[in-house]
Model the fold of this input.
Amino acid sequence: MKRFNNISKYLIFTILISFGFVSCEEFLSRPTEDNYTVDNFYQTDEQCFQAVNPVYNSPWYDFQRGFFKIGEVLSGNYYWGSSPYLTFTINSTDEDLVNMSASLWSVNAYCNGIIENIDLKAGKNVKESTKNTVKGEALVWKAMAYFYLVRCFGEVPIIHNNSAEIASGNYNNVYKATIPNVYDYIIMTLEKAIEWLPTSNQPGRIDRYSAYGLLSKVYLTKSGYGMSGTRNASDLAKAAEYAKKVIDESGRSLLPVYSDVFRLKNNFSEESLLAWHWVVSNNWTSQNTLQSDLGIVGFDEYGATWGGYRGPSVDLQQAFGENALNLTRNNNDARRKATMMMYGDKYDYFWVDKGGFDYTQFAVKSMEYQSATGANEVKHLVGNDNDHIIGCGTSMSRMATSLSTHLLRLSDVYLIYAEAVLGNNATTSDPSALKAFNAVRGRSVQGYEPKTSITWNDIWKERRLELACEGDRWYDYVRWHYYEPAKAIAELKAQKRSWYAGLNNYYKTGTFNAADVYYDANPSIPNITDAHFKLPFPDTDLTMNPNLLKDPVEFDLSTIHY
Done:
């Protein structure tokens, strides 16, 4: 992947509008003219919306690999060879960590610039509702960037206005704020977004319920910080309140078929509250590149897929009730097949022009079997070029698809609500919590009998199955570690994070020999400690600002406003 500049840019990042690409989705389009400046732009409603369009993709581009490695490899959902994210040996020079940090700070700077330019540059003919909507969208993306930052690094600086920091000459001397400060800042940002955003927006764009949903997740996460064995009841109540607004007032509902959520045709589905909306274009950073990292070698026509030797972990397979050493599939949870390809699976939505994708025929019979775990990725994949055309009307390209990456889905909000209502209780039979939980599980599990009471363990496992390989699982461990650190560490250490031997011969012959086909006899157990729940700051960041190594300083939020 192309690297963004390092964090030295996060305070001096100049907000420029990137021009000149054609989107397969109208709302992502940017003007083709190349003679605009900030001073003569922002003169129409359309231009104001075009100014915020890039933040739905480009500034996030170099977070894609870190997004998956942190969310899924670090959490034990995905096997990635000798990756330091698998072994908890990440250091401050790790390329994906460097890129991720720079990307998140770039998002913050981009959003700050949009808000400032709308306030200072918007023309007299721009409607007030347009200005508020555009600023509200930028605020939600800013909040999302900080939500990732605080859960990855812990204490981080609060950069409210890049121009002010540049003018003060303070850009390499900023201190970290405390974790409670950062959460309060995220909440402040989302509350203002809620004030500005409309209740409905163009499909795919952020609306007020996107902000409510993210705010509910922030409160659920924050509820455990600084606690021991329990969570803050007030924060849990807030999480339930805002999730309930989304559930009851947004008019959104779950798609009937789980796998449809991850198809190109549903990039802008009502189930998706917040997403990166990628597009194949002549702007390199606008596209989704995850198919290259996660797809089996030969999956597309471009020779640009190299992820076949990785795959969903043995531990995740077992959570679904699957066993790669069994050649028959008899799983009643549709999410398993929609998440991981295994022996015997066929997909009618991949390789449509070839009659569908037969995993066994392709991955086993036509080549040396690649996966070390007996499974390969499904989510984040489009298929071949014809599949891409069917999905959105345009071709894909080498290392480039237009498949959206969903960061907050309605089913997540349902489970947030159920967990927040459960709170610190052992079980709950609350009808609305049960309705939310049963809706999520009932959509995908054939013959499911709705539960009449649920526990924290029920919700914890359901979150894993529902959101597997969507870049989210590690952050569930972070928030669990806030208030029950020993339990979070113990579960991570007990995972099956390693590989199988002998799968190629076994799958080709169908003959099982326990002496040849077995799970790693001596798996390495990561030496996970409390310190591992904060990733190291990249060296590039520390070089620019040594204060990142110092203790955080309380940030007075009353000194800033939107």
User: Anything to note?
Assistant: The two ends are 35 Å apart (CA to CA). The mean pLDDT is 94. The chain has 21 helices and twelve strands. Residues 111 and 138 are 5 Å apart (CA to CA).
